[in-house]
Amino acid sequence: MQLQVQTLVKSDLASVWQCWTTPEHIVHWNAASDDWHTTRSTQDVRLGGRFLSRMEAKDGSMGFDFEGTFTKVVEQQCLEYVMDNGRCVTVLFEPVAGGIKVTETFDAEDEHPPEMQQQGWQAILDNFAHYVEHHRR
Description:
There is one protein chain. By secondary structure, the chain is of the alpha+beta class. The protein is 28% helix and 44% strand. Strands 1-7-6-5-4-3-2 form a seven-stranded antiparallel beta sheet.
């Protein structure tokens, strides 16, 4: 089963792409709730390049590595990757009236209900839009 989330980021395409693909930005927006954060990120944004984001509960009770390999990179248009657990993700960046529409389509996992997964990914995407629009330095 594939799930999809999307948001409109009120910014220019170059800024959206930079914030999505640069570790020093990712650590500021990549969390689904205020009690989680990304403590480190590495990105080798090229075909066959690897990425990793270390996501941890702020109270130190749990954490995990979100990692995989880029399978398609079209600068400022599209990223595709496969996570180390075999799930595939496509991220599209589309200029539209008022900003950039970011759409993520991802393979659902079997551990959590699809609605919960979609809510979590949407929350991260909403954090991303907020970061780009209000906190990018």
